[in-house]
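User: My instructor asked us to take a sequence, write out its structure as C-alpha cells, and then describe one feature of it. I'm not sure where to start. Here is the sequence I was given:
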Amino acid sequence: MLSALNERGELIMLTERFTRLDLKQLKTSHTFYCRDCREPLILKIGSRVTPHFSHYRHSTCATFSEPESPMHLQGKKDLFLWLRGQGLDVSLEQYFPSIRQRADLVVRKYRQLFAIEYQCSPIPFERLMERTEGYRHLGILPVWILGGMPFRSSGKEAESVYRCSDFQLSFLRHTRHHFYLFSYPPGKKKVCLLSHMTPISAKTFHACYAEKPLSAFSFPFTDDQFSFVSAPVPLPEWFAERRRWIGLKIQFGKAFQDPFLRHVYEAGMHPGSLPPFIGLPLLHMAACKQHPVEWQFYIWLDALFALRTKAAVSLDELLRLFTVRMEKKEIAFRKSPYVRERNAAKAMIYEYAQLLVQLGLWSKGKAGYYMNKNVFAPKNTEELEHMERHLSSVLGAGVSTGKAEQ
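Assistant: Let's start with the prediction itself. The C-alpha cells for your sequence are:
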C-alpha cells in the first residue's frame, strides 16, 4: 500500500516526491499504522520496487488481503499523479466499510464519484462483477484499468494477430464501430490499445495495436480520446484461416455431440462445403465466443427456416431466434462489465444482415429481410476458391476493421 498513518494519526502518502534519504529518515523517525485495522506496518524501501507499506506476515487485516506486485504499486502511483495533475479531487486506497471494498483510487468529477480499480493479477469474473456491483450500489461508477499489456502474445507485426487471455478479455469495451482493449503498463508510461478486434479463434484476434502517452489522456477515459483509422482484414488470409478452422473442427469435433456439427449435418450439408459468406470478419463480433462460421451459420439457418412460412424476417425475429440458441448454450458471449449481451448480439446480427444485403444475397424491405436467391454450396475446392475470389472482388481489399492512429 502507498498510504499509512503515523504515530500522530497523520496521513503519510508515498505518492509524494520523497528522495531515498527522505524515506530512510521517515522510516527511522516514525512508526506507521494501517488506516483501517490500525495494525503496525513496515515501510519497505527496496532498490527494485516502488517504496510501499506492508503488513507484518501474520497480520489479520481483512482490507488488504493479498500482497501488491511492483507493477500494481507503480501503476497506482502513476495514475494518482496523473489524476492529481488534472486538478481532480483524488484519494488513495479509500475503504468503503458497507461493502467491505477498498478502491485503488477514488476520484470526484462532475459531482460524481469514480472508483478506479487497477487490476494486474487475474481474478475470477464473478469477483470482478461483485466489486463492480458493490460500487454501483453506493452510486459510485467503477472504472477498471487493466495492468500490463492488453494481450498475452502477438504474431509478426505485419500479421496484426494477437492472443488474449480470458482475464484480459474481461475488460473488453466497445464503441459504436468496434471492440477494443486498453491497458496501462507502468514501465512504458503509456496507454496501450488493441483496437478493431476481429476474432480468428476463441482467444486470437486480428487487431491494430497503438500506444499513447498517459499524459495525452484526461479522466475519465472516453472513446473519443482514442483516434481510429479504418483498415481491412485481408480476405485471402482470412479465408485460409477459415478453412484451417473448419478442418480442425471436423478433425477434433465430436460429430453429433458438437451442436454446430450436428446442425450442419442435419441440414444436409458438410462443414467443408459451407459457402464462404458464412464466416466473414465483422467489426461487432469480438464479444461472441463462437467462431464466425458457427454463429453466422446459425443466422443463415434460422432465416432459411423462418422464410419458409414468412415473406420476410425482421431483425427482432433474428435476434429472438439467436437468443434461443444462447439459452441452449449453443452460443455464448464473453463476460465484461462493459458489454451487454443483448446489445452485442443485436449489433453483430445487424452488421451481418447488412453485409448479406451488400453481397446481393439478401434484400431489405419494410417487413424485414428477404432472401434473394438459393445459394448452392461449393462442390469442391475449386468452386470454394472461386467463391472466395468473387467475395474478395465484391468487398474490395477486405471487410473493414481498423488501425489506431499513433
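For the description part of your assignment, you could build on this observation: The two ends are 34 Å apart (CA to CA). Try explaining in your own words what that tells you about the chain.
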